[in-house]
């Protein structure tokens, strides 16, 4: 890669004082140096901003800190990207860590595969001592430890190269629904934000992979079979809080598939969606008379 494109490292923060210093420190150790840092703070009530300002003073990277009116996590992600000047977006969440060669290796992948819109990687897990060895964390690791486990394909030269045919896989509806990675595990072209629009701010848990699948519908995705980030599992992270608060978005995910991905699915999955949508409509209106037959309270 002759030129060294600018990479915007986007760090949306909120009350992240416990771990954000480690996240920032992992930036200073990056082997790729043409970076800018965009920090968007959702009115933290701890000393997150003070930690970020100290980093801004001593780092060699251009670092911009913005205050953002809290409107949900998706709005904060979007705000970060809107402020970015780079050709590539690299998320780094406040409780995660980048391995030193993370950005360099992801950027090199874009050079080898110029058609790719997003590059992702595997993860190393940092597990909170309260979770370590518990049935809860064992189940989480079984379900989500390997996000690509349900893909009927193997990496070639250390890379899963995915295209929209993923949507036709029999296992597309199997867990994990996110078959790409969490935001810290991905880098994507900045131009896609203009092409595809922002993250869906109405969503809480699935807004990341909903966006990845919007990208995959238009551009291939490369997943490196190498762990280039450390993903922290602890009780204060947003996903854990959402599950505690019983925020479920399965139906939102199904509606997204019906609206955006239906014509890319296998015929069997299309029929299943049509059948389930019909049942939902019947249940919603309660009673329908069709060809002299009454449906509703009776089973069909």
UniProtKB/TrEMBL annotation:
MF terms in GO: hexosyltransferase activity
Keywords from UniProt, A to Z, are: Transferase
Determine the domain of life of the protein's source: Bacteria
* Glycosyltransferase 2-like domain sequence ranges: 8-196
**Name of the protein:** Glycosyltransferase involved in cell wall bisynthesis
